[in-house]
Amino acid sequence: MTASSHFVKVRVKGRWVTVPAVEVKGDRLIAGGKWLRIAHIRGEEMRDEELGNPELYLAALQRDTDRVLRADIFSFTQKLPATLPKYPYFMEWESVAAISLSSYEQWWRSLPQESRKNVRRSQKRGVLVKVKNFDEELIRGLKEVNDDSPVRQGMRNAYYGLTLEETRERYEEFVGRCDFICAYFGEEMIGFLHLVYRRDVAAILNLTTKPSHFDKRPANALLAKAVEICEERKLSHISYGLYNYGNKRDSSLTEFKTRNGFEEILVPRYFVPLTVWGRLCLMAKLHRGLIGILPSSVISAGLRTRMMWYDWVYSKRRCSSRTERPNCNRQMERSIPPAGSNT
């Protein structure tokens, strides 16, 4: 087995940064954290296959004599539909948001009445959903959707303000095994869903809509089309990130997932210590990070504060850039309504 060093771009706290990576069998291992370094496979959640031989990756990390990653722990997960533990390493259950798909009709009947109404509303209000090829027209549309707001779900939108070339770079990685499902109002793209295929499972990588067209419920229309496509492909599951993120509860994104048929499915996530410090941190459960340690009430208060801060910062920017609107105390709309929200 060979391992080599590279540099890759990753998103850290809403910003794209370049970090060192170690390549093993075509996968790139990266590590995050300051006082505790946890290594994982870049893009693991969209990996086409489940990790077959973790020993190869452990060997590469243990032979990282140049301390490229300085990793204390190696973490990896099993993938749907495999939910029974396979390996003898230290394990915790990871909360995956997924639809167990038997048919479109079954999924539709499982939705609450309001969610079904939102899909019908989008149709009545003129939203047309199409699957588009990855070309210059699509890239321009993706950029326009991302540039509709600098904030997404209470945090900085890392895709805001990218050039066309940067937008292409961000979305071309999975071309050949993905679909771009796009929502249009007339000629204007008002939302898109980036769906990546992993054997008999599809994973939603991005679901982004324009807040200015929220009343047309494009997120619900996009998701309905994704379920329809996955039924045609005879896939077993559609996943959409995590269901619960540590002790974070009652988020608008979780509410949206629940209202649209996603359920919590627990899959094993493994943590293998590489250093004495990593072993001690595992024993003390520090590998979970603040979101896995702090009480839910504290996390919720922090998230509300962050959202208020971003709303204030960007409302000030909007006011200062509009000389025709001297009254900066005018009521500002919320920067990003939760996708698919009924509020």
Oligomer: single chain
Structural class of the secondary elements?
Answer: alpha+beta
Uncertain runs: 322-343
Q: What letter string, H or E per element, gives the SSE order?
A: EEEEHEEHHEHEEHEEEHEHEHHH
For the biggest β-sheet, the strand order reads: 1-2-3-4-5-14-6-13-12-11-10-7
Beta-strand share of residues = 25-35%
Radius of gyration: 21 Å
Can you give the mean pLDDT? 83
Q: How can the largest sheet be summarized?
A: 12 strands, mixed
Distance between the termini: 54 Å
How many helix segments? 10
CATH superfamily of the domain at 98-263: Gcn5-related N-acetyltransferase (GNAT)
Shape: globular
State the share of residues found in helices, binned by percent: 25-40%
Strands, count: 14
Question: What is the name of the CATH architecture of the domain at 98-263?
Answer: 3-Layer(aba) Sandwich
Could you name the CATH class of the domain at 98-263? Answer: Alpha Beta
